[in-house]
Amino acid sequence: MNLIINDNTHQADAKHSYNIRFILCVSFVSALGGYLFGFDFAVIAGALPFLQQHFELDAYWEGFATGSLALGAIIGCIVAGTVSDKYGRKPGLLIAAAIFALSSLAMAFSFSRDVFIGARFCAGIGVGMASMLSPMYIAEVSPAHIRGRMVAINQLTIVIGILLTNIINYMLRNQGEDAWRWMFGLGCIPSALFFAGALWLPESPRWLIKAGRTAQATWILKKIGDEDFVDETLSNITKSLTGITKARYTDIFKKGLLPAVLVGIGLAMFQQLCGINTVFNFAPRIFESIGASQDDQLLQTVFIGGVNLVFTFVAMLLVDKLGRKPLMLIGAGGLAILYVITVTLLGQHSAHVSWFLLASIGTYAMTLAPVTWVLIAEIFPNKVRGEATAVAVVSLWLAYFILVFTFPVLFERLQEKSFYIYAGICVLGFFFVWRTVKETKGKTLEELEQISTGNAA
């Protein structure tokens, strides 16, 4: 199965037939949250040279202005966990869309450094909510045999958001000292589209069953698959929720659930501490160190976005064929090698370094970037998925803040040798994945729950 839709609305796996067109539609609409995630993540790279001059940012404030998004995202994850379990996945997506729109305008009209950082913090709340809810929602409405590719759509929209934002930033580079205001303000347009799309989305059937609204869940499941699929899914979800009381955050640290939670936290933190987001967020600073002009610095961000997009498509083709664990191992090992080469070329002020940085982006885009989100959406049991996902994604954003807050200072002091640190982290991540991650491709969420809690082989 691929993501190209032919004339047949339904497509079958070995046991059931599915309405692929409907599944794709709801997945893409939900994944618009990923597009806005990509926008807020990438816009800072193009705007940072202007912000440095406008607000006179030193290395400390450069890192804090970039990382404030992550601090807001931590709050957003906590809010999303509470909202999604109490009111449903859909209301959380709507709130995230509204926050995206308002924060984009607030950043655009910021009149001081502190106001800008506060607005970017608020944008982070929306990013945190979307980063948790979009992949969770897609995982809960997707059949097992295509779930990896459907969840990877969220990563696809993230990288499309990064690429388009980088292109727009490059186009706006000569629009005067206030070009950065347009860079941020244009985010209100996709935010409005996301809000309108989220109004159309059905609620997650798994959340509806958990909330006792089985009739509504059945109606939605019939839009997804055939009668046998509906009956089997209802039975599996009901069994997984039998005897379950309202989940609390303390529940995820109980003995039966703790191993899956620790793996999720480890994967989330490794995805960020592997270091690749220093290239995404600080490409102008890195290329400035080898003598590139400001135009060339911003042009490199466009190339980075393009490579990121191409290799995300590769990931979508491989994630349900090759599997999650092999891709994670390829990503960790590949980045470690590429970083060592990068250190040498940066030290020589060689223009060839751009090829190896782009290779690092491609490696990350087809491995750690999408597969981490797929695994986080899969490995937690139904009864605590909201709480466990929130903890994992909070850990991810905490690691992102540590990475981007420390990089400007590290690069100022260590220059290219900073990447030795990230190479070492990638080696550690390789062994972590090898020892702890179990393959999840092709299994239903309920089957994975049995495995993660020790109830099945």
Describe the structure.
This protein folds into two domains: 19-201 and 243-452, Growth Hormone, Chain: A; 202-242, GTP Cyclohydrolase I, Chain A, domain 1 (Orthogonal Bundle). Helix content is 76%, strand content 1%. It contains 20 helices and two strands. It has helices spanning 20-30, 32-54, 59-86, 89-108, 113-141, 147-171, 179-185, 188-200, 205-210, 214-224, 227-241, 258-273, 277-288, 294-318, 324-347, 353-365, 368-378, 385-414, 418-436, 445-452, and strands at residues 10-12, 17-19. It has a two-stranded antiparallel ribbon.
Topology:
Blueprint: E1 10-12, E2 17-19, H1 20-30, H2 32-54, H3 59-86, H4 89-108, H5 113-141, H6 147-171, H7 179-185, H8 188-200, H9 205-210, H10 214-224, H11 227-241, H12 258-273, H13 277-288, H14 294-318, H15 324-347, H16 353-365, H17 368-378, H18 385-414, H19 418-436, H20 445-452
What attributes characterize this protein structure?
457 residues; mainly alpha; GTP Cyclohydrolase I, Chain A, domain 1; 2 domains; 20 helices; 76% helix; globular; disordered N terminus
Summarize the structure.
The protein is an all-alpha fold.
What's the number of domains?
A: 2
Radius of gyration (Å): 21 Å
Count of separate DSSP helical elements: 20
**CATH top level class name of the largest domain:** Mainly Alpha
Helix-residue proportion: over 70%
Describe the main β-sheet briefly.
2 strands, antiparallel
